[in-house]
Amino acid sequence: MKKRERRYFIKQSLLASFSFVVGMNIVHGRNIPIGMRPIILDENEFNGLPGKSNLLTILNDKPINAETPAHLLNDDLTPNELFFVRNNGNPPINIDKDNWFLTIEGESAKSSKTYDINTLKNKFEVVTYNLTLECGGNGRSEFNPPAKGNQWTVGAVGCAAWTGVRLKDVLADVGIKNDAVYIGYYGADTHLSGDASKESISRGVPIAKAMEDESLIAWSMNGKDLPLLNGYPLRLVFGGYPASCSGKWLEKIVIRNKVHDGQKMDGQSYRIPCETVAPGSKVEDEDMCIIENMPVKSLITYPQSGATIKLSQKLPISGHAWTSAKEIVSVEYSIDFGMHWQKCLLNKATNRYAWQRFNAEINFQKSGYYEVWARATDSLGNTQPIILPGWNPKGYLNNACHRIAVKVVDGE
Ligand SMILES: Nc1nc2c(c(=O)[nH]1)N[C@H]1C(S)=C(S)[C@@H](COP(=O)(O)O)O[C@H]1N2
Ligand SMILES: [Mo]
What is the H or E stretch that residue 119 is in? Predict the structure, then answer.
């Protein structure tokens, strides 16, 4: 009997990821054997992320997840190419922004309407807000016992100037019934399995959050089109909430008469135990609560951890602090592992949910190894824990103080 040639080909979903990363359709891609990657992914000048700096740290390429090293987050507005990327599925390809449609409907909508992006621009007031987006899983890598999922360190956060229309204006145009409690989104990305009937993610926010002035349907980031990986051509942006609520590649919003029950709203996703639990506990789904407001947090963005300075010099430090409350009221730093804290200079925010710059100059009295820690306090009196806050099964909401290493050496 003739021996049949056996070859195993990659899955359709992996091929879709490869095509996306390469930035074009891979002709004959179905023939790629299992275990082989397009060679271009291994060439140095190509980090595989369209519109993104190759200085991002790639945590996962199926789906694409990449974070920003802390010292590259020093700008007041995070440059588009440095803004982190968190995908749950395969981003859409071949987008035509002139033929992009957003439909608003749902059991608590008084009508159903579909808008193209030009209509949104012309029909509603166009506004710009600086809004901080932070993934609910930012900081996950520090949890112990470890939590599964992307091992974000500190860089799943950024603050950009988002331009678009207010979600509340568009919802009002459609009409909101009195029984509305939630909105949910649907995007054009596809499930990793390749199954077209499944959503990769479909989350949302309570109606009160949707109605805030700063809750946007945005098409622009820092004065430019959204990068493809950040939701081009249209996305939701909610500052102060886990970024998972800010639906990318936005095609549909539903006005719901109950808590939205889309993909990753249920089970353990984007939920924490309603009551504190011991590390490592198994928590039943019904004892898990949806994450709403994000906790107060800060990041030292200058200098880079590991910096060396001379004892005779002062060390300038800088960074950002953010909160879902009205504002940050103080940022302090410590160089003695939290025994003493000194105040930093703190800028006012341009608007609610924008991060606030802090600065300080540090004098060291002796040469040696130091850590600089930063701790922010918001207008509700909430402050950051020094070590890891409440353990939770999925590793969300780690707002422990950021630490950097500094070496002080003798000399002028
Ligand atoms: N359609 C869609 N929207 C999405 C996601 C996604 O996978 N698909 N990821 C969410 C999550 S979990 C986060 S943290 C943010 C990340 O936004 P960014 O990639 O622009 O930084 O987008 C949210 N919106
Ligand atoms: Mo996220």
Answer: helix 117-123
